[in-house]
Amino acid sequence: MNTPLRERPSSHADAVMRDAPTAPRDRQPRRQGPGERSFGLRRLSVIIPTFNEERTIGHTLDRVRGGSAWEVIVVDGQSTDRTREIARAHGATVVESSLGRGRQLAAGASFATGNTLLFVHADTSLPSAFDEYIFRALDRPGVCAGAFRLLIDGEGRSLRFIQKMANFRSRARQMPYGDQAIFVRANVFQEVGGFPDLPIMEDYVLIRRLRRIGRIEIAPASVVTSARRWIDQGVWQTTLVNQVCIAAYWLGVPATRIARWRERFCKRRPGKHIIDQQERGTQ
């Protein structure tokens, strides 16, 4: 009998980021890894949208090797740096798309051949054995999708508070966001219409759709996401803007207008010179 997995206690992101076990890097059929032996013929497609992520994509893909993925798809939004080259060097299949996180994620899902989909942001690191957490979560009665707990890779009480509130929201309201690595069966993803073609809040809309047909499970392990957007844009300012975006969406403001508001906010922040367009989604 399989025993429940539990996350190793950690007080900082570094404790989670231990050396990952190596795994084959090709997307062709191969000998089964530990996750596949435990969970039969399931095939997990990992989909990562990128735009000028040469500083982070290598580490993100290294963490993917900590599980048994059937394929790893990097959907690049016309990067001008070495993102695509690094992704290929790490064994990922690179698909090119027009820029826009929701559009890129949808393109990756349409290209995927797995029967389970995992959507990972380029600055988010997965826990070891992430595939086992995913399949065990999806095996629970009534569960249609899920995500991981959030751990922000940064210091400070304000970031710890944001992290705590995000995890509370995920458990109490079943509302994880994209930086928590959303996973879902491919047929269920298609059933709810996939990601909407929106310039912002694509993860929020997808989770709302999924909640209508089943429960959103939060796996007992954490992904580690970069603190860069909170540092660059301000912790409380970023949180406030996210809530304003959600309120505006519910009031019927077009998503294109909300995206322009958010972009203007980002431009006013002193750290805008290192913020990419990839940071426009609701986090």
Describe the fold and architecture:
There is one protein chain. This protein is of the alpha/beta class and 283 residues long. It has two domains: 17-227, Spore Coat Polysaccharide Biosynthesis Protein SpsA, Chain A; 231-280, no CATH class. The protein has helices spanning 13-16, 34-38, 57-64, 83-89, 101-111, 130-139, 157-173, 186-191, 202-211, 228-233, 235-250, 255-268; strands at residues 44-50, 71-76, 93-96, 116-119, 124-125, 143-153, 182-185, 215-226. The protein has an eight-stranded mixed sheet, sandwiched between helices. Helix 4 (83-89) links the parallel strand 2 and strand 3. Helix 11 runs antiparallel to helix 12. The radius of gyration is 18 Å and the shape is globular.
Question: SSE string, helix = H, strand = E?
Answer: HHEHEHEHEEHEHEHHEHHH
Q: In total, how many beta strands? A: 8
Largest sheet properties = 8 strands, mixed
How many helical elements?
Answer: 12
What is the helix fraction of residues, given as a range? 40-55%
End-to-end span in angstroms? 37 Å
Silhouette: globular
CATH class of the largest domain, named: Alpha Beta
Q: What structural class should be given to the helix and strand makeup? A: alpha/beta
What percentage of amino acids are in beta strands? Answer: 15-25%
* Unreliably modeled segments: 1-39, 270-283
Instruction: Write out the CATH superfamily name of the largest domain.
Output: Spore Coat Polysaccharide Biosynthesis Protein SpsA, Chain A
CATH topology descriptor of the largest domain: Spore Coat Polysaccharide Biosynthesis Protein SpsA, Chain A
What would you report as the Rg, rounded to the nearest angstrom? 18 Å
